Amino acid sequence: MRAVTLKVPVSALHFLSLPSIGGWSQFNHAEWAKRSLDLIELKDTYKSCAEIYNPYWFKSYKDDTSKIKQNSHHPIVVGAYYEDEKCIGLSDEQANIYKKSFYHDWFNSDPNYYSNSNYYFSNDKYFRDHHHFGGEDKGLEYKWYFELRPGDVPKPTEYDGKERYYSAKNWGYGGIKVDKLNRLTFTEAIKQYNRYSLDGKRCAYLMLGHVLHLLQDQGEPDHAALADHAASSKNEQEAFEEFHICEILAAEIVSVSDPALILEIMAGNIGAALAHLTLTWPIFLIALAACKSKINPNEVGYERLIRDVYILSDLKDINKQIEDTGLLYEDTYDDFFKQMSLKSMAARDDIKNKYPDEDRLDYPLGLGPAPILFPQIPGCNPDIDKKDNSQTKPYIDLTNKVVPNIICYGSGFIRRFYEIVNHVPFVEQVVVVKAVPDLKPVSFAKFDPALYLPECQKCQVKYSAKWSHKFGTSNRILNVTSEPLSPDHQAYIFLQFGPNIDPEMSKRIRLETLDLKLIGTSPMNQPATPIKWTEAKDPKLGYYYWGSFQPKNPLGQPYKLTLEIQAKDATAHFDRGSNSGYELDSHPETIAMVNPYDAPSYSFIDYQPGADHNHKIEIGSPIMMDSLENNQTILDATPINLGLSTSSLLGPDFKEKSNPDSGAIFIPDLTLHNANDIDFFHVHFQTHPNDKYTKKGLAKELGGGLYLESFPPTLEILVQETFGGCLSLELYNSQKAKTHVFNNTNTVRLNGSQDIFTNNEFYLKVLNPDYGHQGKLRYGLFIRYLCGGYILKGKFLSKFWEYMDFPRDPHGGILDFGEVIGDPPETIKYYNPHKLISDLKDFLPKIVNELRVEDQIERNIILANKYHELGQIAQGAGLLGDAELLYDESTQIYRQHHMALWEATVLHELHAIYMKQGRIKEADHISQRLEELR
Questions:
Q1: Which of 661, 723, 759, 912 could form a disulfide with 486 if both were Cys (CB 3.0 to 4.6 A apart)?
Q2: pLDDT (tens digit, 9 = 90+) per residue, 181-207?
Q3: Contact criterion met (CB below 8 Å) for 460 and 428
């Protein structure tokens, strides 16, 4: 239906509502956003922006595909789709606003949103599309008919003396002016990305999608020209129904035929007006039917035409133009909006010049005013017949001009945001591994374990350092473990660059820029040849870099080297001059952030670009001949004489080269410095006379829920290679006959060694089983003969120690004859059978004597109390037999010292045990004694 200018009473306006003031359809916005992402991927030759189009963002879920879903579409696409939503998917019930918000799943973990669901956007009936016009500071001018929209109409802001809304550029940028209404902005997206988390990235890209929608809007000339276009996304039938145009036209006709109706309505005489309307009702119905019969559903607004007929994927020429143009960049956020607006209006002017007679190309595009009101409301009558090619062609031509700009500028805008917020790289993790030559890792700092099965031949981490978040702060802390590297073995260095955040995980750096120098005091502190770096990818970590070198130490003394690491990021950064973000952050402790308020440079906070010097590795002393070098045959074996050892807990400290066991022998700094080097030792050991009682083993139950086991004497040989290499051991008897072979081991324990080596002597041979791979070795040797003894254990023991306040010193007091294992003890080991605890009746007096109480009566009373307490513990543990025994002991002492009340207390508990066991006679006997005590 062509636009016809008619007049209608203002009273008829109560029929009219304006659901929108225009905008690209949501589907167009989503399609343009997706195409912008595709173009970024297509043009990203070096994958420097791979995070933007990472498949992670497009995870496929079983969602309703009829709408854009946050789980199945890129956050940028989701944000672009939903920017026009005035209610963000809410129900009409305000009580359910928080629960049913589409964005609840995005922000429910954010404390700002949790405390205020309106924090990021006005989560009520606020209309957002008033702020979708204008690529510069000037926004849409307020018009009286905006008040016809249902719900709350936003209040305009002042600009050049006129009431205007925020421009799309300012609405999308954010800041103090719009924060209370909208934080789905460019500024807030930077803050979200600064969170250094996957969730922060998701929310940042979602917000960027909202801003992209606003930029895309400026590619539609009506938005750039500040022309509201309420029906642009509708066909004529939808527009006439939603705006009630035919009803108002019918009312207009009635009012023309009966002027008195107007006078009655204007005078407020509603009853009289209804009477007049009743008389003219047939006229109203006839006019209404006539209007509806002329509605043409094929007549559409410009935006509806594009949604229905414009299929970009079918337009090869336009797609080629987009690919050839590539990403369009501007220097600043403001320039993107300005240029998009200027180019879209210029495109409309070009088409207008090409079709000078097409009055539908006037603003608003493809729309006439509502043919009903005075003053008229523009943009309410869709006026392009989509079945008429002559009418549609100008708009298709226009779209062919603006869509490449929308997609190419959109791509540049998305990439520019990523370049601004992209985290600076830093050395997040360094691991140095000692291993055999010519290996290839299977993952970060790991090689195939099947290559070298013995534990001592597996690759060993000698330096490991990683920056991790420092709890309770916004900083990081470096956790380091370090051991010396052997100058005689191959070293592998692994580097991982952070931050390690999904979906891309670890940072990828430009391999040709990676340089590592070892800086220290040694004149030979550089690798013999430059480290050749290899890029690899760990399935859990992402990209990492590794190389190998041979440490050198010509000076002989251990020394430290500082790792100077230089590299440049392979991902894209915004050009900020020397602080662009490509260089490593030399001080990762303080986390580098983008200053969201420092437009247009967006400088970094806490970023110190430069080489990383945070890691130091230690190079051990070289392996030379040791002082016992003449023991390479069994005839030249080094003599060793062992004393008696009575504590398995007292072992050597190989690192500090100390030996607390006086009966053992400890020899550090032994070397196997070539393929033929072998060490022989001739060992003599003493035995204890009581070993013959313990060697066969003993197991018996004692009173009080305790159990006794014996253990045999043991010959213990410990070896430890300084840099974790493998050693093999061989044993020979006094006749020099080989008795035992232990390959690739560091511990040998022989039970009953006095039976194996009957004259208390043997020979020990130490050798390097794989010199070809291991090279030179340096080791420490520890040998001792442990006497046999006994182990006292049981569930009663820990409760006993928990409740009885006795000394527990394992090297003195009552336990100077054994070892206490656990606290409270679960096991006590005794090496001297003459001090073995035979039963509790003997054990407790010994303990009480240790309390150093001089008065005999006082000692006896303490002993009785302890028997009583221990009996209560036994009774509580269900050990009724042991409880009876202990109660008997305590009552005898109480009776001896005429302590009737205390005796009666114990007898009552003993009576309860007898009754529980059905021992009536014993219980009666207790009862008689209790009568006597009364």
A1: 723
A2: 899 999 999 999 999 999 999 999 999
A3: no
CA atoms within 13 A on the CB side of 489: 33
Residues in a beta bridge with 569 = 509
Parallel, antiparallel, or unpaired: how do β-strands 777-786 and 738-745 relate? unpaired
Cα 543 to Cα 528: distance, rounded to the nearest angstrom: 27
How far is C-alpha 626 from the geometric centre of its chain's CA atoms? Answer: 50
Q: What is the DSSP letter of 508?
A: P
| Contacts (Cβ under 8 Å, ≥6 apart) of 687 | 644, 713, 754, 760, 785, 787
Q: Which two tokens stand for residue 188?
A: 């807030």
Measuring CA to CA, which residue among 358, 137, 121, 349 is closest to residue 226?
A: 137
* Counts for the chain of helices (H) and strands (E), in that order: 27, 33
Angle at 830 between CA 825 and CA 834, to 5 degrees: 135
Distances (CA, A) of 18 to 150, 241, 248, 701, 733: 8, 11, 14, 94, 105
* Distance from C-alpha of 335 to C-alpha of 346, rounded to nearest angstrom: 16
Tokens linked to 525 = 């502190």
Q: Give me the DSSP letters along 653-709.
A: BTTTTB---TTSEEEEEEEE-STT-EEEEEEE----TTHHHHTT--EEE-GGG-EEE
pLDDT tens-digit readout, 766-775: 999 888 778 8
DSSP state of 485: B
d(CA 114, CA 117): 6
Residue-wise pLDDT for 595-631, tens only, equals 999 999 999 999 999 999 999 999 988 888 888 888 9
Q: Which two tokens stand for residue 660?
A: 């607390």
**Which structure tokens are listed for 717?**
């040989």
Asked if 569 contacts 615 with a C-beta cutoff of 8 angstroms, the reply is: no
CB atoms under 10 Å from CB of 563, counted, come to: 23
Residue carrying the six token digits 């890129």? 74
Q: For residue 913, give the amino acid letter.
A: I
264 token code pair = 């009655």
3-state secondary structure 126-175: CCCHHHCCCCCCCCCECCHHHHHCCCCCCCCEEECCEEECCCHHHHHHCC
The 8-class DSSP code of residue 454 comes to S
CA distance linking residue 431 with residue 441, whole number of Å = 13
